[in-house]
Amino acid sequence: MDLSNTRLGGRYLLGPIIGTGGMSDVYAATDELLGRDIAVKMMRADLARDDTFLERFRREAKNAAKLNHHAIVAVYDTGQTDEAHGSVPYIVMERVHGQTLRDIVRDSGPFPLDEASRVMAEVCRALGFSHEAGIIHRDIKPANIMITNTGAVKVMDFGIARALSDTSSAMTQTAAVIGTAQYLSPEQARGKSAEARSDIYAAGCVFYEIATGQPPFSGESPFSVAFQHVQETPLPPSQVQGMNLDPDPALALDAVTLTAMAKDPSDRYDSSADMAADLQRMAEGRMPLAAQAYTDEPVQEPSTSHLPVAAPTPAPADEPEPAPDAPRTEKKRRRGWVVALWIIAILALIGGGTAVAWNWFGGSDDTEQTSEQVQIPDVSGQPRDEAMSALEDAGFDVDIEDRPDAEIPRDQAIGTEPGFGSSLPHGSQLTLLVSSGQEVTDVPDLTGMTTQQAQQALQDAGLRLRSNVSEQASESVDEGRVIEQTHPSGSQVSKGTEVGITVSTGPEDVRVPRVTGQSRDDAVQNLEDAGFEVDVTMVDSSEDENRVLSASNEGTTQPRGTTITIEVSRGNQFTMPQLVGRDYDEVYSTLQQAGWRGGPDRVNRTNVNQLDPLAVGRVVGQSAQEGETIDRNAPITVRVNVLGIP
Questions:
Q1: What are the GO BP annotations of this UniProt entry (predicted)?
Q2: Tens digits of per-residue pLDDT, 348-396?
Q3: How confident is the model at residue 54, as a pLDDT?
Q4: What's the predicted TM-score (pTM) here?
Q5: How far is 221 from 181, CA to CA, in rounded Å?
Q6: Alpha carbon distance 117, 290 (integer Å)
Q7: Binding site members for ATP
Q8: Nearest 5°: phi and psi at 622?
């Protein structure tokens, strides 16, 4: 159903649909209260009919909203709308303009290796941030990662995949597997709970794809792809057709990608931060730590690399390698796998696929296969003792972990790990998470920090930076630095509180007044009153002494405090008038009127004999030509006719 032009929550006006998936529609929208562009994701009505799903979806949306990181699409709000067919949840998110990695690779091919490394380093930093907050993405794939029009990396759909995995609907579980088969970790394919290293595995798959242009595994069905994730070793990415890498970049690419994609989670990177660090080294042209153990030897072609992660996985003992002369047997076995996997897919669609896939993919030993599977009950909100009793009565060994929580009262259950709705063998251990109440912390002093530094300082203190950062001009605080904060430094607030900051945009821009032609004193005063510094340069000029001849940036807009240079006349020159043709008696007065300050003795006369009595006394030459600028006290020489034989 298209809900365009619908208003949600009294403030979110939905525009056109800008994205559609198997589980939701995404609308361009406007937050009419704040006047900003947003995106609203509406879950499909048929998936929203399960009360259990609704509760988990709301909780996971709240978790996602806690993730305030520049590389994570911000979640602003969550809610639900009542339609004729029931309550439908929605999530209000930051609207990002750009392209997904899926679209970029599809339209333009693989990324250059250094750019692919840079992008995935940023993705892993975002994952590391979410993992520290206790949130696993569970659905990392190229379609959930965007490059904005400004080149920034944005990871989307935090928390939503987890909400889907918690529902007990078999069809929903199957849809989740189908949607992410190419990036599904082996443990998830076996039916185990996802963990932080499951995201690392998926990030390795994405890195493989954007660097080579193809995913590490492909097949006729999602379950055949999932099977490969469990049992098969991917072709080292450097050996994909068309890569043509030098030995060192090839080794680096294989080491990072295949370390992240190790079958055993304990063989992968310890954390997303470690993977991000290795990717950053690659982006800078350095060798990642995953390959350093092998750099003492000459770098070989990728096919002969000593990377343990690139080595083929040994075949199981009960599955001997086929003889080289038996291709027909191998082809039959391969067809048998495909048929079996399609059977798994059909069983999954009728609700039995999870258990079958678990056994088929080798997810449990013989004891586990025969153990009774018990579903974890929902104990959230129950008192500690009641929750523990309920879990023990269900047949679980319970370990209790206290965690601060701003919403759930002290000594009440937050939930369990794994989450409710999951199934474990009878007698398995699980963790009951119990609220220790609100935890307070001191607000750090953020003044003088950059926005990024302030965000890190708040994160270290267990606080969050408000997404809307205010800006204000300042003459005393450098541009990009914090001027003030909403909560005083040293004050105590609940952990998770949002703290707002105001950041300097630098000095305010003001217009430089026009001062040319003014006296020096007036010009300096006017410029200083406008907020500028003044530098005076004296120059030779025929203009009046202390007259401003020019001013830098006059009439333009400049930051307050900028230095303006003015040129001021010394008044020590004058412009020579026309003396030729005048009577000698007029020379002195003419010079005085033009601004010359010399005395009569500074006028030198040179006589020129002339037979024409009418020309006697007339000036026929001058030492400085008309219009020439010379010193006001310079001597002047004129040539004057006298009666005589030339």
A1: negative regulation of fatty acid biosynthetic process
A2: 443 334 433 434 344 444 333 345 788 899 898 899 899 999 999 888 8
A3: 64
A4: 0.49
A5: 9
A6: 14
A7: 41
A8: -145, 150
Closest CA to 435 of 357, 381, 473: 381
User: CA-CA-CA-CA torsion for 119, 188, 315, 353, nearest 10 degrees?
Assistant: -140
Burial track 283-320 (b if 16+ CB lie within 10 A, e otherwise)? beeebbebbeebeeeebeebeebebebbeeeeeeeeee
CB-based contacts of 398, cutoff 8 Å, min separation 6:
388, 391, 392, 429, 430, 431, 432
Second CATH level (architecture) for the domain 7-94 = 2-Layer Sandwich (3.30)
Q: How many CB atoms lie within 10 A of CB 227?
A: 24
Closest by Cα among 130, 175, 133 to 272: 130
Q: Tell me the C-alpha distance between 508 and 524, whole Å.
A: 20
CATH fold of 440-504 reads: Trypsin Inhibitor V; Chain A (3.30.10)
Q: Could you tell me which residues come within 8 angstroms of residue 612 by beta carbon, excluding any fewer than 6 positions away?
A: 641
How far is it, in rounded angstroms, from Cα 263 to Cα 255?
14
The residues facing 7 across adjacent strands are 13
pLDDT of residue 84: 58
Distance, in Å, from the CA atom of 321 to the CA atom of 498, rounded to the nearest integer, reads 59
Q: Where in the chain is the domain with CATH 3.30.200.20?
A: 7-94
User: Any idea which architecture 371-435 has in CATH?
Assistant: 2-Layer Sandwich (3.30)
Share in percent of the chain as helix, strand, coil (round to 5): 35, 25, 40
pLDDT of 298 reads 44
In CATH terms, is domain 98-312+330-360 a member of 1.10.510.10?
Answer: yes
Q: How many CB atoms lie within 10 A of CB 20?
A: 10
pLDDT of residue 51: 64
- Measured CA distances, 381 to 375, 457, 487, 589, 595 (Å): 18, 32, 31, 107, 97
Helix (H, G, I), strand (E, B) or coil at 19: strand
When the candidates are 3.40.50.300, 3.30.10.20, 2.120.10.30, 3.90.1150.10, the CATH number that belongs to 509-569 is 3.30.10.20
H/E segment holding residue 91: strand 86-94
Active site residues: 139
Instruction: Please tell me the predicted confidence (pLDDT) of residue 180.
Output: 64
Which of 222, 254, 255, 221 lies closest to 236 in space, CA to CA? 254
Low-confidence ranges of the chain (pLDDT < 50): 160-179, 298-343, 345-370
Burial of 81 (0-12, 13-18, 19+ CB in 10 A): middle
pLDDT at site 293:
55
Which amino acid appears at position 129 of this protein?
A: F
Comma-separated ranges of CATH 3.30.10.20 domains in the chain:
371-435, 440-504, 509-569, 574-643
> Which has the closest alpha carbon to 209: 292, 104, 291, 287?
104
Other C-beta atoms lying within 10 Å of the C-beta of residue 506: 17
- Number of CB atoms found within 10 A of residue 19's CB: 14
If we measure between CA atoms, which residue out of 199, 198, 290, 298 comes closest to residue 246?
298
Contact 545, 517 (CB under 8 A): no
* 207/277 Cα distance (integer angstroms): 14
Q: Which CATH number fits domain 574-643: 3.30.420.10, 3.40.50.720, 3.30.10.20, 1.10.1410.10?
A: 3.30.10.20
Annotated binding-site ranges: 41
